[in-house]
Amino acid sequence: MRSLNHFFLASVAMVILGSVCCSTLRAADRPNVLFIAVDDLRVELGCYGDSIVKSPNIDKLAKRGLLFEQAYCQQAVCNPSRASLLTGLGLDTLDIHDLPTHFRQRFPDIVTLPQHFKQNGYETRNIGKMFHNWVQEEYKGDARSWSKPAIMHYANHGHDKPMVDGDLPENLSPVPRTENRDVPDEAYFDGRIAQLAIETLNEIKDEQFFLAVGFWKPHSPFNPPKKYWDLYDRDEIELANHPDPPQNVPDIALHDGREIRRAFKDRPDGRPTAKEAQALRHGYYAATSFVDAQIGKVLDELERLGLNDNTVVVFWSDHGFHLGEKSLWAKTSNFELDARVPMIIAAPGQDEGLRTAAIVELLDLYPTLVDFCGLEQPPHRLEGTSLRPLWNDPNGQVKPASLTQHPRPAYPAAGEDPDVMGFSIRTPQYRYTEWRDYKSGDVVAAELYDHEQDRWETRNIIDTEQGQKLQPRLHKLLDQTRNREAGKS
Asked: Would the pLDDT of 1 be above 80?
C-alpha cells in the first residue's frame, strides 16, 4: 500500500507545473457542472448507432456536445471504477480491486473531484449513487465531497422495490432478475432521484454548483415500470451475437457471471434458456429507456431554468455489461463490452454535435473538468489527461492507449490481493491483454484481438504470426501505460 505522503512527494513537481500552466477563470465566469452517472450501461444507445434501444434524451444531449466513441473504464465493476474516476488516480496507485474497500482507507486525505470543486467555491450536491455503496458508516456518501449530505446515495440494488399507494400491481414478468409492474416512475429509486435532482436544481440555481446525479439503472434487477417494457416488441429482440467464448481464449479471461446466473442455477446448464435470455435483454433495454427518461427530466429542467448556457453536462457509465455474448453475463471481464462505456460532454461555448474516436478513459474526466472550469490543479497529481484539445480537433488523439484491468478471482475478498491481475490496453486497432501473477508479475496468459477485422473479439490471435509479431510492441506499450501512474518511469 502506498502512503499519501509518498504519493504527494512523488508528484509535487507535476502539481506545481500544472498550477503554473493552467489559466484559471475568474470565479464568477466559471461554469456549473451537472455530472450524470449511470450504472452498468453498455454502449448501446441511439446516438451510438444502435437501432433497437430507445434513448431519445441521451441522444439529444449528444447533439449538444462531444460524444466519445471509444471511452473506457479502469475496471469493470462499480467500486474500483468510481473510486478511480472520482479521485483521478489509476488503480495501480489506489490499490483497490474489490467492492468493499473505500479509497480513503488507502488515501485518507485525497481530494475528490467534487471536493476540489467545493474547495473552489462551488455548491456541491449529490443525489443518488455516485460513490460506491460502502458498508462502513463513516464512508457512506463521502461527506467531505459535498456541501450538504448526499441523498439516496446508499442502498443495495436488490432494495429497489416498488413503492406505491394501495395495492401493488402484479409482476408481469416471471423470469428471474426481472420485474414488470404497471407503476409510476417514482415507485423506483431512479424516478425519485430525478425528482430530487429537479428540486435541488431549483434550490441551487442562483449559485455556482456541481450537481452529481447518480442513477441506479440499468443495473440488475431489470425492473423498470411497464410502460418502458411496452416500448419494445419481445419478438424483435435478438439473442446475443457470438454467444460462445472466443477461439483460443484462456479460461482465466472468462468468469461465472454470478450476478445474473446465480438466479438460474437450477437450469440444466446453469444458464438462462433462450426465452429467458430474450426476456433479460428486453428488461435491460427497458431499464435503459427508463433511466434515459429520468435523465431527460433533469436536462429539461436545466433548460427550463435557463442554465444550459453556463453548465457543463457530463454523462458517463461506470462500465459496460454482457448480455450473453462470449457465454458471459454481467461484468468483471476485460473484453470490449465490459471495458467500453458511453460518455458525452456538452460544454457551453463549444461546437455542438461533435464525435471523436480518440481513445479516452473515465480517468480523464477529473482533469478535463478542472480544465474546463478554470480551476487550479488539486494537491495531488491527476493521472488522466484533459480531453479539452479534442473539441478543437475531434480527429486527434490524446493518448496512445487506454488501460482496463480486472483481477482473478473476479470478486476478491475485502483488502486481499488477487491471485492474478489482467491488464488490458485498447489502442485504435487492438485490444491486448496480459494476465499476470499478482506477486511475481509473470505473464500466465495473453490475448490479442484485432478490432479492424474482429470487432466482436471472437478470436484470440496471440499465437498467430501476426500476434507474435505485434506482442513485443504491445507488451511495451502496456507497461508504458501502467507506468504513467504517479509519474513512474
From this structure: no
